[in-house]
Recover the amino acids of this structure.
């Protein structure tokens, strides 16, 4: 990877100055759950979000903000509602029969759960990459062009496909076989194809649901590098089981935990360095240090 | 001390045990062989009798003559006459069954709530159980007698290919709907989620992701439907007439390959006569057509089946 690709990450985490400003603001917060973003207004603000599946409540009154061009990691043990929270951000939950959402998700200050909002339009702005790579059984080219085609893309498809594949660091491997099936690629390549497919419709936010859990370590590293590059243009929210991944890749981390009654709640939210090195909540400390989960 | 069930049985094999095991295998193998032997027997008889026929009538005449008159004194054996009638009724039936069946399948798989699907799908499959003779009289009495006569008057004959084809199409809808629905329903949910996440509507997802992903299964259903229409006998025998006529006019009486076989089989044609042998020649032709369809289907399914992780 080139030098420039690492810069945005360095600014978010390692660079002293950028970090300092985040820490300084942390002193002003009394509520550990809400993290006021420095800089531009957050892209997504979640307010008192609860999701039920039938009679079973999955997450309870979660509130947090997702900063513009930040990578936010959602961590927590299995069954804590990470994926539910993520899927609530672009109304993917409602594809599950019996799912019910209360509270607000403000995207650019507009509640995406308002009555007059079209979930299809929401998902064009807030894209998603899934746990298991799920390329369509179409050619590599058609996979990337799919979103553009259904959205009535005006420009040249060839250029869009090339640009998206380049952006997803997949162009060199696929440029000579764009007509081959997307299913013929390796797992890591398939996942990058899904990322290319997602960015081809130029969303503002990309949600990633454990995007590396089905991949080997080398493919995982590639996706992580890619995420750092993409954060220049996109806001990324990633659910991950892998705490090393969260600490490597994210600017902000939200820790969710479900108690005895299996309802997920937000325990702590803050800059990733703080969550991993200086957590406020003992449960966070126990989790990130591997004492449970 | 714990009791081990069977722990004290000797380890030697017993004669009765071995025999029973062997008997079971033989019985199972016998059942499997019945269907294979039946098919082999059928094909053998068909071929032997058809070869006898082609010993007396030139295969060139069979394929090139434009009249089918084996039951008259001036005999001609142009199979194309019967094939044209079969193609006509099959075509009309497919124009009804394929689109309606596929759209019904899309509705059931992609739109209907789970509870509705659980009721509708078996209901559709019950439709497939109606005896075809009922469909045949429905075509003759209602579709021709009431609908088409009412609409077109004397422009349409009492026996015609249109009515038989339409009703045959309706009869085949459940087959297409049920098999296509199986194929659509088997498409992994993750593909639909991937499509929705790209801002696709339900309709775009169904048509551009789910249907293409299920294509091999849908084509298999279509081919089966064509085979069913080609081989369908009762409806065409009752409603399409028994007048061998070359052409694709849907308003006039025609005679399909299957109707012809029924006509001869029901008559008093002496065994071994040339008239009797024609039904094996026609039967062999029918068999060849459905065999080709099935081979195509098998090839297509293998070629386009998607392997998901």
């Amino acid at each position: 990877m080139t030098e420039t690709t690492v810069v945005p990450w360095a600014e978010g985490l390692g660079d002293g100055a950028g970090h300092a400003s985040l820490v300084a603001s942390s002193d002003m917060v009394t509520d550990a759950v809400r993290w006021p973003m420095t800089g531009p207004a957050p892209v997504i603000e979640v307010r008192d979000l609860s999701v039920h599946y039938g009679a079973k409540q999955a997450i309870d009154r979660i509130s947090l903000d997702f900063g513009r061009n930040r990578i936010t990691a959602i961590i927590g043990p299995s069954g804590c509602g990470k994926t539910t929270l993520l899927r609530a951000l672009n109304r993917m939950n409602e594809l599950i029969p019996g799912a019910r959402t209360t509270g607000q998700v403000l995207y650019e200050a507009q509640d995406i759960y308002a009555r007059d909002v079209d979930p299809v339009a929401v998902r064009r702005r807030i894209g998603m990459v899934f746990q298991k790579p799920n390329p369509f059984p179409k050619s590599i080219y058609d996979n990337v062009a799919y979103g553009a085609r259904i959205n009535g893309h005006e420009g040249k498809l060839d250029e869009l496909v090339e640009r998206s594949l380049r952006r997803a660091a997949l162009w060199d491997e696929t440029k000579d076989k764009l007509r081959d099936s997307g299913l013929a690629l390796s797992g890591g390549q398939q996942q990058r194809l899904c990322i290319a497919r997602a960015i081809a419709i130029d969303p503002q936010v990309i949600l990633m649901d454990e995007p590396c859990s089905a991949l080997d370590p080398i493919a995982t590293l590639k996706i992580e590098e890619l995420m750092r590059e993409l954060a220049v243009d996109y806001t990324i929210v990633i659910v991950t089981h892998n705490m090393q991944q969260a600490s490597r890749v994210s600017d902000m981390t939200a820790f969710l935990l479900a108690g005895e009654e299996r309802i997920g709640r937000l325990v702590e939210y803050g800059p990733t360095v703080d969550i991993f090195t200086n957590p406020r909540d003992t449960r966070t400390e126990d989790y990130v240090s591997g004492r449970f989960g | 001390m714990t009791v081990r069930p069977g722990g004290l049985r000797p380890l030697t094999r017993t004669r009765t045990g071995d025999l029973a095991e062997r008997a079971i295998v033989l019985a199972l193998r016998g059942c499997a062989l019945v269907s294979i032997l039946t098919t082999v027997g059928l094909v053998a008889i068909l071929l032997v009798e058809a070869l006898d026929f082609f010993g007396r009538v030139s295969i060139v005449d069979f394929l090139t003559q434009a009249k089918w008159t084996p039951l008259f004194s001036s005999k001609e054996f142009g199979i194309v006459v019967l094939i044209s009638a079969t193609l006509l009724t099959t075509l009309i039936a497919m124009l009804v069954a394929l689109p309606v069946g596929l759209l019904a399948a899309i509705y059931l798989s992609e739109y209907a709530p789970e509870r509705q699907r659980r009721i509708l799908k078996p209901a559709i499959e019950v439709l497939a159980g109606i005896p075809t003779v009922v469909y045949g009289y429905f075509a003759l009495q209602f579709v021709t007698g009431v609908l088409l006569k009412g609409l077109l008057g004397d422009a349409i004959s009492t026996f015609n290919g249109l009515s038989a084809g339409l009703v045959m199409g309706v009869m085949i809808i459940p087959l297409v709907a049920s098999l296509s629905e199986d194929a659509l329903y088997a498409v992994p949910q993750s593909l639909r989620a991937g499509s929705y996440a790209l801002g696709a509507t339900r309709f775009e997802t169904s048509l551009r992701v789910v249907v293409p992903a299920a294509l091999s299964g849908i084509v298999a259903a279509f081919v089966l439907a064509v085979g069913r229409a080609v081989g369908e006998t009762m409806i065409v025998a009752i409603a399409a007439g028994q007048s061998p006529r070359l052409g694709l006019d849907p308003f006039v009486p025609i005679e399909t390959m299957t109707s012809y076989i029924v006509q001869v089989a029901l008559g008093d044609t002496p065994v071994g006569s040339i008239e009797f042998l024609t039904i094996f020649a026609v039967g062999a032709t029918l068999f060849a057509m459905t065999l080709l369809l099935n081979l195509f289907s098998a090839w297509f399914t293998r070629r386009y089946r998607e392997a998901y992780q």
